[in-house]
Amino acid sequence: MIYSPEKYAIADERMKPFIDEQEIWDFINQTKPTKEWVREVIAKSLDKKRLSLEETAVLINATDPELVEEIKQGAKMLKEKVYGKRIVLFAPLYVGNYCTNNCKYCGFRTTNRKQIRTTLTEEQLIQEVEALEKNGQKRLILVYGEHPKYDAQFIADSVRTVYKVKKGNGEIRRVNINAAPLEIDDFKTVHEAGIGTYQIFQETYHRPTYASVHLAGKKANYDYRLTGLDRAQEAGIDDVGIGALFGLYDWRFEVLGLIRHVNHFEACYNVGPHTISFPRIKDASEYEIVDKYRVSDEDFTRLVAILRLAVPYTGMILTAREPMEIRREIMSFGVSQIDGGTKIEMGAYSKKEEHQDLDKEQFKINDNRSLGEIIDELLDKDYIPSFCTACYRTGRTGEHFMEFSVPGFIKNYCTPNAMMTLAEYLEDYATPEVKEKGAKVIAKNLAEMEEGKIKQNLVERLGRIKVGERDLYF
Ligand code: SAM
Ligand code: SF4
């Protein structure tokens, strides 16, 4: 079977569902990888070219342990070659957990009477943001259940409130959204509040499974959700995030569903999604999940490596749903963003007590480390923790694409910006030990930089940060 991008360019009309179940199964069932073919596909990805559905199926069907290892090594090489050492940090902030949908996997489902429902008041929202700023966070994703209370105006108002909160040197410089799909005019209202990325996960691309796990409410409409981010694009939001919830259906189908979604965006809007998320189902209050499709750690790490190779220029997000050990392994495959210091119980950031109560949250998280602890570990592992928000604030949207297409982009923009935001964090929030460790990482990376204007400029700016200036970026 030959993949033809032209076929999709013609077939992909905006706002029309684009998943062809039979086509995906044909790729899975009919692609028979040889060693040579798998290596060719890995080499194509290392050459920074996006893989077709068929080529992705080659990697999916390569189950020989030696080839699986080569795929993982390929993902690691791609990360080193392209992404450098940065890992961007963010935190999720749950604004309201009322929900009219009945998604069987989620603790917020409308039938869950045990769930304690709340919506943060403006004052509580401010307290949460202050607590997050006090820890050093600069990037948030606001999360909402789906409910008439959380209309576009409500979402836009909460975004504006968050941007206004300034605690000490703290401020939130980028607010992303994870909420229900909206109508075009409503997306415009949210866009005007200055959001970064709008994320909507399809959960499962398999229509019959979708119907079996979304029992009631607006989310039961597969097509409306699938085309949600097309409406966002029409409204001017060109920074969008897709995702699948792994564990609802065969992971191989979901991986190809995600790649098909990427193709659709490229065909219609000339640019792929900004990020891909791959949450794996975790325990939740009153959730009901068949175990048949649960994804093992082995398959999960493999599928993340495959996704990395399939879409070399798309940001990948890994959350605290996963335990520390899995996060460590997967990070080396080119994850670009992780959350740190995550609390998903409503109002938890500004509370003193530390315990997890499933009836007050959407699902269980498995990496409870503080932002400081995560940064400490990233530094130990030679990463540069970054809070950079420069591209979005200078209008350079689609930055992941630029990282690939503009020679030297990472070297000239991303790495220096990561170093400056790390330097701010070290000055304002780090313990003395982390500050010392971080200073060494900055010095080491500076020493590795080519001499020239950019380095001179960076050294000068790092000096300005030391004496109190903030928010410097290229
Ligand atoms: N209500 C909005 C929606 O459904 O799009 C907001 C999203 S929800 C609060 C964020 C995401 O969490 C969902 O899209 C889903 O993929 C994920 N999720 C839900 N239940 C989960 C569970 N039990 N384990 C892991 N992730 C889960
Ligand atoms: Fe509501 Fe979203 Fe949970 Fe579904 S996943 S029940 S829409 S919060």
Describe this structure as you would to a colleague.
This protein has 474 residues and is α/β, with parallel strands linked by helices. It has three domains: 5-80, no CATH class; 83-369, Alpha-Beta Barrel (TIM Barrel); 404-466. 47% of the residues lie in helices and 9% in strands. It is built from 20 helices and eleven strands. The chain has helices at residues 5-11, 21-30, 35-46, 53-61, 65-83, 122-135, 152-164, 184-192, 207-213, 222-226, 228-234, 251-269, 297-310, 324-331, 371-380, 390-393, 399-405, 409-428, 432-448, 453-466; strands at residues 86-96, 139-144, 166-167, 170-171, 174-178, 198-199, 240-243, 275-277, 315-318, 337-339, 384-386. The strands form two sheets. The chain has an eight-stranded parallel barrel with strand order 1-2-5-6-7-8-9-10, surrounded by five helices. Helix 12 links the parallel strand 7 (240-243) and strand 8 (275-277). Helix 3 (35-46) crosses helix 4 (53-61). The radius of gyration is 22 Å and the shape is globular. It starts with a helix and ends in an 8-residue tail after the last helix. The model has no long low-confidence stretch (mean pLDDT 92). The structure holds S-adenosylmethionine and iron/sulfur cluster. Iron/sulfur cluster binds next to loops.
